[in-house]
Design goal:
The protein is an alpha+beta fold and 247 residues long. The chain folds into 2 domains: 120 residues, no CATH class; 100 residues. Helices cover 24% and strands 39% of the residues. Helix 4 crosses helix 5. The longest helix is centred in the middle third of the chain and has 18 residues. The termini are far apart.
Length: 247
């Protein structure tokens, strides 16, 4: 018996799965990122739309758990012992959810439940793609030195590789544009922390001298001062090669 009910009656009166009838799935039409609770998430590997649908479903459903304080409804990550399977039927605009677990620890066997959710897709532009489209940048990294065409190309390649690695940890990290100058290269970078990483690489690998300055350009929506940074990386007069690190 569970709370005065037999096993069958308890199961019938206490559903394991709580799911909405309909969902709207917001996905970036450019990069495949999806919107969850007002926060954009990376698309990841595989089918971007299917990933977005699954993530939206898992953020919208709840599972029931009977406790001494009463019935609680938890997010899937709060009840990892509940097995959930999400199967989007992309052509039909439906999602099938299967749940396997116990509402109460005294249940003799897990409950098996399924639910269907109708979903619609909304195409939008994520925050990062919006910044990229606007050529937004927080800092200019000015690389200066007596550089050959091959040396410019190598520097550009290495700094772009660094940006590509950084974006795995920080979505808003990117090089907005690169301009060729007579004395070197200008990298327009977002955010400023990435520009500093790039400058640090030039210092450690090529012995560059680094200078930084800031200009107040306004304020953020929450009232904080907003700066744009200029970082100068001046390379010494010697052959430039990333094959050798500075000792």
């Amino acid at each position: 018996m569970i709370g005065g009910l037999c096993q069958q009656c308890f199961t019938e009166e206490n559903r394991l799965l709580r799911a909405p009838a309909e969902l709207e799935v917001t996905i970036c039409g450019r990069c495949g990122a999806y919107l969850i609770r007002n926060q954009w998430r990376e698309a990841g590997e595989g089918d971007a739309v299917a990933n977005a649908v699954r993530a939206t479903v898992l953020s919208s459903i709840k599972v029931a758990r009977s406790t001494k304080a009463g019935m609680k409804f938890l997010r899937p990550h709060e009840a990892p012992e509940i097995k959930l399977q999400v199967e989007p039927e992309m052509a039909e605009g439906m999602i099938k959810i299967m749940a396997d677990g116990k509402v109460h620890e005294l249940q003799a066997k897990p409950q098996l439940e399924e639910a269907y959710i109708k979903f619609s897709l909304k195409r939008s532009t994520c925050d990062v793609c919006g910044l990229k489209s606007a050529r937004h940048y927080e800092a200019i990294l000015q690389v200066r030195g007596e550089l050959t065409r091959e040396e410019r190309s190598e520097i550009r390649k290495k700094l772009q590789q660094l940006a590509a690695e950084t974006v795995k940890r920080e979505r808003a990290a990117f090089i907005a544009k690169v301009e060729e100058q007579r004395e070197g290269l200008d990298f327009y970078v977002n955010p400023a922390s990435l520009a500093r990483q790039m400058a640090s690489m030039l210092k450690s690998r090529l012995g560059a001298e680094i200078k930084e300055s800031a200009k107040l350009v306004g304020q953020t929506k929450d009232g904080r001062r907003k700066f744009r940074y200029s970082i100068l990386a001046r390379l010494p007069k010697r052959e430039v090669s990333f094959k050798r690190e500075k000792s």
